Amino acid sequence: MKEGYKPFILVNGIPSISVTDNGLTFSKSAVVKLGCPAYVNLYIDAEKKMLAVEPGEEGSPQAIAFYRPNDRNIITVRWNNKDLLGYLCAVMNWDLKTNSYKVSGTYDYNENIFEFDMKGAEINAKNKQIKNKIDANSDIMQDEEWSSDPSGYPMDDPEDDMPF
Predict the structure, then answer these.
(1) Of the candidates 12, 41, 40, 37, which has an alpha carbon nearest to the alpha carbon of residue 27?
(2) So what's the pLDDT on residue 121?
(3) DSSP for the chain?
(4) Under 8 Å between Cβ of 50 and 44
(5) What is the separation of C-alpha 118 from the centre of its chain, rounded to a whole number of angstroms?
(6) Tell me, what's the pLDDT at 9?
(7) Is the dihedral of CA 125, 131, 137, 142 positive or negative?
């Protein structure tokens, strides 16, 4: 193998995590990109609203069990830890009883770590995908606040009908 080359693993799907009242689930793509490690280290930056995972070592104090091969060859990981879910809900002001959240990840190939910007979560409310950049200083726009314009964009001034 030529010096400097590293394997690049192709996996269908976007590396992401989903947060529901049933747990935090890592997509197949995220698990495979990390190398299907048996253990990971979990990091949360509450101020920046970021979550990160990197492969960990068994026996390390911060190592958390991650991927276990199975007979059905299903590659996914779910953590059902209520303490983790409660902490994420508190940090993000999320309501898992009525919504679930999906966050795409960014993989750092040099550091072998996934980072998830929780502020960019997609909210799934009653089977309706609503993309929302969650910001502590902004409110989620409700359906009735949007115009009836078929483009879906709010209209600043209904009298302003400028041709394109």
Answers:
(1) 12
(2) 96
(3) --TT-------SS--EEEEETTEEEE-HHHHHHTT--SEEEEEEETTTTEEEEEE--TT-TTEEE-----TT----EEE--HHHHHHHHHHHT--TTTEEEEEEEEEETTTTEEEEEGGGPEEEETTEEEE----TT-PPPPGGGS-S-TT-PPPS-TT-----
(4) yes
(5) 6
(6) 76
(7) negative
- Each residue of 17-50: pLDDT tens digit? 999 999 999 999 999 999 999 999 999 999 999 9
* Tokens 């276990």 sit on residue: 68
Q: Nearest CA to 125 among 80, 150, 148, 94?
A: 94
Q: Above 50 in pLDDT, residue 156? A: no
Residue 104 has pLDDT above 50, yes or no: yes
User: Residue ranges of the domains in the chain?
Assistant: 16-136
Degrees to nearest 5, angle at CA 32 with 8 and 133: 95
